[in-house]
Amino acid sequence: MNDAGSKLSVFSLGGINEIGKNMYVLQYGEDMIVIDCGSSFPDENLLGVDLIIQDISYLLENQDKVRALVVTHGHEDHIGGIPYFLKQLNVPIYATRLTLGLIELKLKEHGLLRDTELNLIHPDEAIELGSIRTSFFRASHSIPDCVGIAFETPEGIVVHTGDFKFDLTPVNEEYADLHKMADIGKKGVLLLLSESTNAERPGFTQSERVVGDNIADAFRKATGKIFISTFASNVHRIQQIIDAAQMTNRHVALLGRSMVNVVSVAEELGYVHLPEGMLIDAQQVNVLEPEKVVIICTGSQGEPMAALSRLSTNTFRQVSVLPGDTVILASSPIPGNEKSVSRIVDNLFQLGATVIYGSGSASGMHVSGHAFQEELKLMLTLMKPTYFIPIHGEYRMLQLHKKLAESVGVDGKNIFILNNGDVVDIQNGVASQTRRVDAGSVFLDGLGIGDVGKVVLRDRKVLAEEGMLIIVISLSKADNRLLSAPDTISRGFVYEREAEDLYKEVNQLVVSTIKEAKPSTRYRRNDLKHAVRKSVEKLLYTRTKRRPMIIPFIIEI
Amino acid sequence: MNDAGSKLSVFSLGGINEIGKNMYVLQYGEDMIVIDCGSSFPDENLLGVDLIIQDISYLLENQDKVRALVVTHGHEDHIGGIPYFLKQLNVPIYATRLTLGLIELKLKEHGLLRDTELNLIHPDEAIELGSIRTSFFRASHSIPDCVGIAFETPEGIVVHTGDFKFDLTPVNEEYADLHKMADIGKKGVLLLLSESTNAERPGFTQSERVVGDNIADAFRKATGKIFISTFASNVHRIQQIIDAAQMTNRHVALLGRSMVNVVSVAEELGYVHLPEGMLIDAQQVNVLEPEKVVIICTGSQGEPMAALSRLSTNTFRQVSVLPGDTVILASSPIPGNEKSVSRIVDNLFQLGATVIYGSGSASGMHVSGHAFQEELKLMLTLMKPTYFIPIHGEYRMLQLHKKLAESVGVDGKNIFILNNGDVVDIQNGVASQTRRVDAGSVFLDGLGIGDVGKVVLRDRKVLAEEGMLIIVISLSKADNRLLSAPDTISRGFVYEREAEDLYKEVNQLVVSTIKEAKPSTRYRRNDLKHAVRKSVEKLLYTRTKRRPMIIPFIIEI
């Protein structure tokens, strides 16, 4: 069943142990297909980094083989890296309608739209990508138009689930296509890649419809203005908010750039239906009676520059939260965001609003878009794969997903947990994981791609926690004589005005260190800097128990 | 019922909107009593700050009136600030036995034990503090020997609950003294101060005994070594771990300085009972069979230098986590610590351990020590206060606690939500909140008290996120001539080797800026620095979209 010498390979280039910058690559023979191209946001250790994307040097080395980038859905962690990817490697993109709309929005911003080949896929049709027949199945998730992918290779069928849950009462009519999944499983799946985000959570996710019912209840009870914050891309939820607004005769205003953009794309493509005359501008909010208005806004994750955060500190120009207003956080804080979200809730309480919030589904205003354990088992049972790779998640989630797979009958020896760069090869029905390719993270900070590396980040950390001290020393070129007293300034160390005595002491120490240095040391500038740094370091630690970055600076005249 | 002119006042000096540095002050006439003196840990915005304590300048201004520091229990957020307090204001301390033991430990470290007056209080006895008769009632919490306080003043009774929950099946025999609380309530409480930590959580906390049962179950199932991590001060939980170890014939080793210290104090004072020969040193762990060992360790909050974190990265010298071992996190991440705890769990999975973890009480290995909503209502119902101040919590929790109080009959007009520095005065039975005193936070970093202020922290933030660039310019004193080419170095900005061209450009710009500056500007050093900073800032932002801190440095020869 196999071309002589050809083998099937799956590469992880992102998305392992770092939820957010998802990217997998499938190769059969001379054909490579890239699946998803996400970006992720840095955590607090990556000081000042704006965005993290994949290192795609392996793909660049093999660019003649890359046939396509296929995208499962339109979330940032699956499409956010596309502009940076295309700047390095221009390949045709395949995606469903809404996903394509959201990608277009991004390409426009980066001026890449004209030069990119965009192909619309319909979940019911199959396409040929090189030698690989590629078909799709609809999946439920927290954004419409989500698909899983089945790749038919001569070696066998590979299924990539994308992100999914099983919402059996979905808001739109796009049911997760259980029957198609069952058909694929019946044909025989060689390898399944399935997402692991909620592998820690027992049970079955609630339906998005539950949120709609609770939103409607809250709208019925509210008296003043209603603010409701959710992910802009959660189009089903936004539709349910619009429905509740219609039921309670309220107009809708949209706050936040991504909310305006995404809703406009979704409406244009028919994923959101806004009754005629319902939408108003932010400026009109204050003209209407409070009980006639709903404001849908961004910032449900506590992002400091987004609408909700600015509303909570009363720094949004056109609209204010007033006592008697209701604010609904239709979201659950992503790990790491708990404190910023709490701060916003706290500020909203101070403004006198009624705030409906909570983590997980505790408030009734949020359900997860990712399969819980019973759903993961359902997918595994439908697909009955010979080999299994749990994807999208941190190590513990992949490991727990592995256990779930074993519990429904997948042989533990046939389950591979990959790190980024790991490869699984399958030839003649036998899978092995023996090789690695280049893979990693690239940090974006401002305009630069990849110019902020580990050295820069380590420096930022020291600067952040201890501050720094610069000592400028002017030496005569001729005889290494000190031309003037050393000069010391600091930033982020101690408040300068209060530290005059300490700096005097530092300067005296620098003078004596230079005087006492052997002529050979004085001659070698780096040795002299080292000697100054060491002696000042010791003094400062004794006096303050701190270790600022010390930068001796020699001027030669 | 009141001395002519005397009034009763309650001051909040810490603990409002910043869980952790709790401190309240009660004053009647010429007598002031300080209740608790906690410290708190900085969040990610306070770069490099080690500890936060109260600004007690108001107490220093009134030091002749301060009669005592009364401490409700031995947690850091109630005793952590005591050494720094005593260095500024030496007053007698009153606390129960275990609390006093933990305070002594702290005072020893700071060399303050000899000069401090420590007074043991027994919950069943009353004491006179100046004119104020002070009695106590036992409360349940996650540390033994916890008390609430009743202050009898001529104006009426003021009750401060300390931290509490109602554990009706406690691990030791020290029941929360419901009858005494009821008696105090019957006498009539003028003002109640009650903690609000869990005002967001519906229902009633589970008993600590539940944790003991689950620990015993896990110990019965475990085959390899058992590691269990919890707060050192949770003495009841440590006793339950010891009991489970005894039941399964395991020895116990303690890892982590605070674990060793606290257990030793608790054992000495009779709060922990260790069977003869059960305790072993860390070095002995590897000598014994894995199934004969339990390791109790610190670091359940993900603290990077604590035992659990080091075990998870296999950098603990004497002991290793091996495949087949069980690791139990008997704790719930405090908001803000979720990610560090997740990282540790992930690492432990990678080591092949069975990890029992979860947030809240999901794992069965943790229950909260703070009253949930029904318990808060029970306290309010028992005390029936005329006036109420919700304490210990962020604003939203205080506000929710206020609503709970209203729901059990406290008049909303009689409830005060204080910020730090706010004062409630009661005279002739009438309460008002009209004045403020100095209050705030003091940051400790290394040895300094308060020398890291807002300027330093703002600098650290810029340095952390954007890095910095130093430009050294040598000018002749005589004629403001440039003596040599400017020199530029950076830290935390871009990787220097890759930025040579950019720095050349910067240096050229500096030269031209200086040349083009008006003579008057060149003469005034600060103006010249300003001009250089502005022009370089603009260049760097255009080239990199970043705004590092720019420090022009002028050397005069």
TrEMBL record, chains A, B:
<dbReference type="InterPro" id="IPR001279">
    <property type="entry name" value="Metallo-B-lactamas"/>
</dbReference>
<protein>
    <recommendedName>
        <fullName>Ribonuclease J</fullName>
        <ecNumber>3.1.-.-</ecNumber>
    </recommendedName>
</protein>
<keyword id="KW-0540">Nuclease</keyword>
<dbReference type="GO" id="GO:0016787">
    <property type="term" value="F:hydrolase activity"/>
</dbReference>
<dbReference type="InterPro" id="IPR001587">
    <property type="entry name" value="RNase_J_CS"/>
</dbReference>
<comment type="similarity">
    <text>Belongs to the metallo-beta-lactamase superfamily. RNA-metabolizing metallo-beta-lactamase-like family. Bacterial RNase J subfamily.</text>
</comment>
<keyword id="KW-0479">Metal-binding</keyword>
<dbReference type="InterPro" id="IPR004613">
    <property type="entry name" value="RNase_J"/>
</dbReference>
<keyword id="KW-0694">RNA-binding</keyword>
<dbReference type="InterPro" id="IPR055132">
    <property type="entry name" value="RNase_J_b_CASP"/>
</dbReference>
<keyword id="KW-0255">Endonuclease</keyword>
<feature type="domain" description="Metallo-beta-lactamase">
    <location>
        <begin position="20"/>
        <end position="215"/>
    </location>
</feature>
<dbReference type="Pfam" id="PF07521">
    <property type="entry name" value="RMMBL"/>
</dbReference>
<dbReference type="InterPro" id="IPR011108">
    <property type="entry name" value="RMMBL"/>
</dbReference>
<keyword id="KW-0698">rRNA processing</keyword>
<dbReference type="Pfam" id="PF22505">
    <property type="entry name" value="RNase_J_b_CASP"/>
</dbReference>
<dbReference type="Pfam" id="PF17770">
    <property type="entry name" value="RNase_J_C"/>
</dbReference>
<keyword id="KW-0378">Hydrolase</keyword>
<dbReference type="InterPro" id="IPR041636">
    <property type="entry name" value="RNase_J_C"/>
</dbReference>
<dbReference type="InterPro" id="IPR036866">
    <property type="entry name" value="RibonucZ/Hydroxyglut_hydro"/>
</dbReference>
<dbReference type="Pfam" id="PF00753">
    <property type="entry name" value="Lactamase_B"/>
</dbReference>
<dbReference type="InterPro" id="IPR030854">
    <property type="entry name" value="RNase_J_bac"/>
</dbReference>
<keyword id="KW-0862">Zinc</keyword>
<comment type="function">
    <text>An RNase that has 5'-3' exonuclease and possibly endonuclease activity. Involved in maturation of rRNA and in some organisms also mRNA maturation and/or decay.</text>
</comment>
<dbReference type="InterPro" id="IPR042173">
    <property type="entry name" value="RNase_J_2"/>
</dbReference>
<keyword id="KW-0269">Exonuclease</keyword>
<feature type="binding site">
    <location>
        <begin position="366"/>
        <end position="370"/>
    </location>
    <ligand>
        <name>substrate</name>
    </ligand>
</feature>
<keyword id="KW-0963">Cytoplasm</keyword>
<comment type="subunit">
    <text>Homodimer, may be a subunit of the RNA degradosome.</text>
</comment>
